[in-house]
Amino acid sequence: IERLVKAGVSAADIQQLQKAGIATVGILFRVTTKILRDIRGFNKAKVATILQAASKVDSKAGVTFQSGIEARNGRMKIMKISTGSDALNSIFGGGVETGSITEIHGEFGMGKTQMMHTLAVTAQLRMQNGSGGGRVIFMDTDNTFTPERIKTIADRFDVDGHEVRHVTEP
């Protein structure tokens, strides 16, 4: 974001952007103009000037274009990870998509952790079949991750314990 000085943006304005958590030109392009106008000392005209300066500094940071074929090819790389339930897979359109974030929420005891444990294991199935990477990040905000449960689920799906270790080891 400091490169904006060369494009005529004051150091004070850059400092205000940084205080607001805008550290790069790419982030600047992704923030709404309303959020930018809410920054102390920024008005509609100043925001427009800063965005214009940013486009001079990095014309490609704000927008990316791709052809329909490129978009289709990107979608073809997406795999579906089984939830372990045909009914739930159907709701998800064949399973949980790779390359995206899927948030599951609900009341205590509704099966969220069970589903995440199962997904952590079924993602490994791809690796064993040679068609995927099988990498999982399990973000456990409730401290409910149970390696023993992972082992039980791995046995159910006949997943090699050496592959599951990627999920259970720190």
TrEMBL record:
Give the protein's recorded name: RAD51A
Q: Write down the Gene3D superfamilies for this protein, in alphabetical order.
A: 5' to 3' exonuclease, C-terminal subdomain, P-loop containing nucleotide triphosphate hydrolases
Q: Does the keyword Nucleotide-binding apply?
A: yes
Q: Which UniProt keywords apply?
A: ATP-binding, DNA-binding, Nucleotide-binding
Classification via PROSITE patterns: RECA_2
Q: This protein's superkingdom?
A: Eukaryota
* GO function term, MF aspect, one: double-stranded DNA binding
Name the InterPro entries on file: DNA_repair_Rad51/TF_NusA_a-hlx, P-loop_NTPase, Rad51_C, RecA_ATP-bd
